[in-house]
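Hi Q.,

Before the meeting this afternoon, I wanted you to have the guanosine-5'-triphosphate prediction in hand. No need to reply - just skim if you have a minute. The sequence and ligand are here:
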Amino acid sequence: MRCLDLPLRLFAPLVLLFFPVVAAATSSLDLDSGWEYRWGDSPTLEDGTPVWLVTDDEAAWQAIDFPSNPPGRDGNHHAWFRITLPDGEWRDPVLYIYSIDLIAQAFLDTEPIYQHGNFDARGQGPFIGWPWHVISLPEDFGGRQLAFRVYSNYTDIGLWGEVRLMDRPEFFAMILNRSAADLVVSAFCLLLALLAGSFALIHQRRQTFAGIGLFSLASGVMILAETQASQLLLATPLLWDYLAAAGYYALPVGIGLLLEPWFTNRLSRWIRRLWQLHLGYLVLALGLALSGVINLSSTFPVFDALLATSLPVLFALIAGHLKRLNGEQRLVIAAYGLFALLLLLDMAVAHGLLPWQRIPVSLGALGFSLAIVAISLRHYVLTQRELIGLNQRLEQQVADRTRDLQHMVEQLRAFSYQDPLTGLKNRRHFDEVFAHEAASARRGGALTLVMLDIDHFKHFNDLYGHDAGDAVLTATARLIGEHFREADVVCRLGGEEFVVIMPGATAQQASEAVERLLASMREQSFLHGGEALGCVSLSCGIASYPTHADDPTELVRLADMALYRAKHCGRDRSETYAPST
Ligand SMILES: Nc1nc2c(ncn2[C@@H]2O[C@H](COP(=O)(O)OP(=O)(O)OP(=O)(O)O)[C@@H](O)[C@H]2O)c(=O)[nH]1
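Predicted structure with the ligand bound:
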């Protein structure tokens, strides 16, 4: 789990496609042959120089290709490795090592030149992380002996991964080039984690988003922590290893959270148990390591064994139920399958089951994140389409409702101008139409107003009752309407009083119409409930513009005066306004 780069032969084309910067070339020399090892720890001379660096006990040293895990460990926690450095032309040379299990001292001939970790009096010390190392060398190192004193109570002992001679600028370029892709992937995963985490807080499918969020966070943190450039950002190797462990251990928890709701009872219970087991291990292992009970390094092999078991179990469990899942869910499982495969390969390299090579674990994380993003984008497009459809339906509904509302408003408006008993227009309508006709008459034209009032209506009501009075009002209104022109506007002013606006009519024309109406009234026999109601008469007052008034608005008052005169003169008659009245 300590290596994240690419097995170049397999993945180089893919990586070049995504991350061309990774392919920058470096010239360097791998020290992967010519080593010797010796089990145990060297005694020291009085000045502290290890005896094994100065004595010539050649038989005690054994040849080994790479300074790691020599045969016959037999419970040994100490080993020494040495090599005679080759000649070469270097400018500011360094020795790059990735990495050391677990702590070590380096000597050039007898001179101590580097130390990783602290050795106590017994030559032991705690795990302080798995960083890469860069050891400065003098330019004349050719032919000199480089030796490592190593302590490890871990499964591996010695140097690990790569041991390479190079110039310092090339070393920096290599670190940056190797890290660029991982930094991008890590940022991508962390961004996805942030988005999924936010959705988990507000969305209904909380567990799904929590699973995606945790998985992305775990991958992002793990990749960032294992990226070689992280050590340049913050030289705290143990902290980075804790973060890498936390991310690594949390991966199966995240995927378990995501997968659990996709399956039914029994299967989902098994998935829950698996992720809970991993969560338990995460808390226990990191808790014990942080509290100093165990070394963080010792938690990795146990987790690797746990994951190597739980991964096949998980895939075996879900394999038979894939048909029930939809395409998106299968895509997520396929992406996780690829990621899991890379994790297992990386694990195999870390435990020496496969030769040293860089496994593109970050590519697995990228694939998973891209699958999630692709699914999210698809959902976004579908939601957008639904929204557009919904919007159109909504607009249609709003248009329908607006039309209904307008119709209602028109109806209400009509009602507000109508007298409900007689069906004639009411006083409000009269006021508006009269104002309009008066203005129009003022611009040139005649206008006549006729006021009509039923005679002794109070008495009538008293005699026949209010309902009979209503029937007479309705019949009278109809009769009035029948005796005037289309252009005339008949309104009920209130009570038993009516008015007729006659645009363009003279007083004479109005008088003739009124006389015909009065004659009809006299002949009209009113009925109510089958009962004859006797005669009802009308009194009328007429005033005309410009004959009787300088201003048309005067007509209301003048017609009213004429009506008063008609009443006064005995009712059942019509009077035209005369100035003397
Ligand atoms: N049935 C009925 N009666 C109404 C209505 N509106 C007003 N009235 C009655 O009409 C009568 C009007 O009486 P008055 O103003 O004294 O006039 P009148 O009795 O007709 O006397 P003159 O106008 O002088 O001939 C009152 O008794 C009102 O109650 C209505 O909508 N229906």
